[in-house]
Design a protein that fits this description.
- This protein is α+β, with helices and mostly antiparallel strands.
- The protein has a single domain, classed as Alpha-D-Glucose-1,6-Bisphosphate, Chain A, domain 4 (2-Layer Sandwich).
- It is 38% helix and 36% strand.
- It has a 7-stranded antiparallel β-sheet, with helices on one face.
- The chain is elongated, with a radius of gyration of 20 Å.
Length: 177
């Protein structure tokens, strides 16, 4: 009986520690990168506003060539969507849908992963003309559920996602030169 009581105390202590860490873990995140591209906004826009073009520059397509995309809707309009299925270790299963579109200026999308984990976020692009060039900003934001917050104390989403954003922006730059 003493052993069961000891195990119970240890388990309860671990649960309390996890809850306390949850109080200190981040409740949301934002990852963003930007790049000044030597091209007019409409050239950059053509790459980001049509999911058919994403296959040409997406860093995730390079990581998972087995990924199969299903694209629906009219490019550069609210509701244009892309769903995919791929290697569970690389791209998994998910989808994204444009939620706001301002031609040659900005677009936002809702992103969701369903496998191998569930996650929802909001992301987008803003384009700013600067002396014949375009400053493109790519971002993703989301809430972190309470139960996952302790793990976020030991993970850096910016370091995990940021390099992919940088790669994608560099790929866009190469395409519009």
């Amino acid at each position: 009986m003493k052993i069961l009581k000891g195990i119970g105390i240890v388990l309860l202590t671990l649960v309390v520690i996890y809850i306390i860490l949850g109080l200190f873990g981040p409740s949301n995140y934002k990852v963003e990168r930007e790049l000044l591209i030597d091209a007019a906004p409409n050239k950059v826009w053509n790459q980001i506003a049509d999911f058919n073009a994403w296959e040409n520059w997406s860093p995730w397509k390079e990581k998972d060539p087995t990924m199969v995309n299903t694209i629906e809707g009219t490019p550069a309009t609210v509701g244009h969507s892309n769903s995919w299925t791929g290697n569970p270790e690389t791209s998994g299963k998910g989808g994204m849908t444009f939620t706001t579109v301002k031609e040659n200026e900005s677009l936002t999308y809702d992103l969701s992963f369903t496998e191998p984990w569930e996650m929802q976020s909001t992301g987008g692009f803003t384009l700013t003309a600067q002396d014949g060039k375009t400053l493109i900003n790519w971002y993703d934001t989301g809430d972190i559920p309470f139960g996952q917050r302790p793990m976020m104390l030991f993970m850096d989403l910016d370091q995990m996602m940021g390099p992919d954003f940088e790669k994608g922006l560099k790929n866009i730059e190469q395409l519009v030169k």
